[in-house]
Specification:
248 residues; alpha/beta; nine-stranded mixed beta sheet; two-stranded antiparallel sheet; 11 strands
């Protein structure tokens, strides 16, 4: 628990299973609020369920939302370095049906938890880097949520026509100079969205590369924290969520 006694961010492990395999995510919330809050299912970056990702989840939650961090790899898979993360992420990214299944299972586990009061009528999904791509695949699967927000996520998909199944607004927050998401991916995503009637937005932030919301990212020109852009991106997320949750 981090913070002062009367208002603290709580991070609690939450176990669930998918087809008999053990998974463990995290529930993150401010315990100063006791009434039901809107829920954000979050898919973290390729390192998976980590303390650093929990910090980012806490920033997203504030005192407004409850966040459930999905475990996309299984309880026994916890990458400890970029090579291990690449292997774990590639295995899931290479099987989009599996990616969608695990993301949806996290949504279901979130709805079923009884740890903290949750407003199940107001739920969205957010993701960072690898997680941003996973959230877009969840959207393309036709998941029944109120919004989907990708922070510096990959935009490609093997089945662009599936975008017609998206049921809620999509917001992509993209670094204009992100080498991990080249112009070809951006152009492909725009074409994919234009072929549908999806309510979508893309914010392209100048002078920002990959991982611009990650305070620990420090690879100049590739993975680099940009505090001003991060602030704007989280505000864009909050603006969309204020809009969609107000209509519920």
């Amino acid at each position: 628990m981090v913070g002062v006694a009367e208002a603290a961010v709580v991070v609690k492990p939450h176990a669930y299973d998918i087809d008999g395999e053990a998974f463990e995510g995290l529930i993150i919330y401010d315990d100063a609020v006791t009434t039901p809050r809107a829920g954000l299912m979050m898919v973290p970056n390729w390192l998976g369920v980590t303390e650093r990702s929990a910090e980012k989840a806490a920033r997203a939650a504030g005192d407004t939302y409850v966040v459930f961090m999905a475990d996309m790899y299984g309880k026994t898979v916890r990458p400890s370095n970029p090579d291990e993360a690449k292997a774990a992420a590639s295995a899931v990214r290479g099987d989009r049906a599996l990616m969608r299944k695990r993301a949806q299972a996290a949504v279901d586990a979130f709805k079923a938890q009884t740890v903290v009061p949750l407003d199940k009528e107001n739920m969205a999904a957010i993701g960072f880097c690898f997680g941003g791509g996973a959230i877009l695949e969840l959207a393309r699967s036709g998941a029944d949520l109120d919004a989907f927000v990708s922070f510096h996520g990959n935009l490609d998909t093997p089945n662009p026509a599936d975008a017609k199944q998206i049921k809620a607004p999509v917001l992509v927050l993209h670094g204009a100079d992100d080498p991990a998401v080249p112009k070809e991916q951006v152009d492909g995503f725009i074409a994919e969205m234009k072929a549908t009637d999806v309510d979508w937005q893309m914010n392209s932030y100048g002078n920002a590369v990959h991982s611009f919301t990650d305070p620990y990212a420090n690879v100049p020109g590739r993975n680099e924290y940009h505090p001003e852009v991060a602030k704007r991106a989280f505000q864009a997320m909050n603006n969309l969520l204020d809009e969609v949750f107000a209509t519920q």
